[in-house]
Amino acid sequence: MRNVIWAILLILPSQALYAQQAGTPDFASQNKDMLVGSILAVSRHDVVKTGVLYGAIGVFHYIFRRRFLLISTDPEQAEAQGISLASGIFCSTHRSDWS
Q1: CB under 8 Å to 87, separation ≥6 — which residues?
Q2: What pTM, to 2 d.p., does this model score?
Q3: With bands split at pLDDT 50, 70 and 90, how would you rate the model's confidence at 98?
Q4: For residues 39, 41, 42 and 43, what is the CA-based torsion angle, rounded to 10 degrees?
Q5: Is 88 exposed, middle or buried (0-12, 13-18, 19+ CB in 10 A)?
Q6: Quick check: 2 and 99 in contact, CB under 8 A?
Q7: Residues 34-74: tens digit of each pLDDT
Q8: Is residue 75 helix, strand or coil?
Q9: What are phi and psi of 10, to 5 degrees?
């Protein structure tokens, strides 16, 4: 059930944007840019900035990977070790009881 809720929460904003843009004269080009993008319009600065952001996220997950894995696989043991389960709930995707 949670998967359905997440899917709806992810789809609604994009559909609202799509519906809003449908009334504009240059809808076709905006729609193409929204769905496909344009790799030629990306600057070196944007690539570096995105690389740094993804690198920071990767370092964060590397540092806390054992904690996230423990929260995902054995929440009772994680709680016994004093690890806050709320901190891992949004960073973990391995929870088997979410479906």
Answers
A1: 67, 71
A2: 0.47
A3: very low
A4: 150
A5: buried
A6: yes
A7: 677 666 677 889 899 999 999 999 999 999 888 888 888 88
A8: helix
A9: -85, -30
45 to each of 34, 48, 56, 62, 63, how far by Cα in Å? 21, 5, 16, 25, 27
Provide the H-helix boundaries in 38-81: 44-63, 65-73, 75-80
Give the dihedral sign, CA 17/22/26/28: positive
Rounded CA-CA distance 48/56 in Å is 12
Q: What is the percentage of the chain residues whose pLDDT exceeds 70?
A: 76
